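Data follows
____________
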Amino acid sequence: MTEQQKYQVIKRLADLEIREYEACVLMQVTVSGDFMRAGNLAFGPLVRYISGNNAAGQKIAMTAPVIQEPISDQEHIVSFVLPAGMNPDDVPVPSDARVKMIAEPAYFAAARKFGGGWNEHRFMAEGEQLLNAVKAAGLVPIGAIYWARFDPPWKPGFLKRNEAITKIERPKAL
């Protein structure tokens, strides 16, 4: 089974989960293109990186989710989460200059799970519902909403797991 990004559910509400994510290492590519095309454009360089296209020739296990964060309508950051426990100092240097390593510290987030196929309208609608639920819960979002895809494109839509996520300030009730 594919390793998934590590987090602890702090609280479940009707429309979201409040989570505490562990520190992790992300490999990212910034691409130009519309929402759906961006994921496809970034996937190749990221897969090549974990397949050994790095200074050490090291293969790295695929994990889930693949994360996509819009910077604008035509620019997106797409990230792979490296396996838990990888030290940022030991991550192989990418051979492709487009691939960047980001050491992500632990953080709190609100997440809304949803199933089904992928399209921009669906992701945006789920993101809007997440933001409304975050505000209704008295939580304070930090930065943009991003999307997490957990399944390969060939998996039937009704079986796919997706999430809209936003980082939040540490909830006061904790």
About this structure: The longest strand covers residues 24-32.
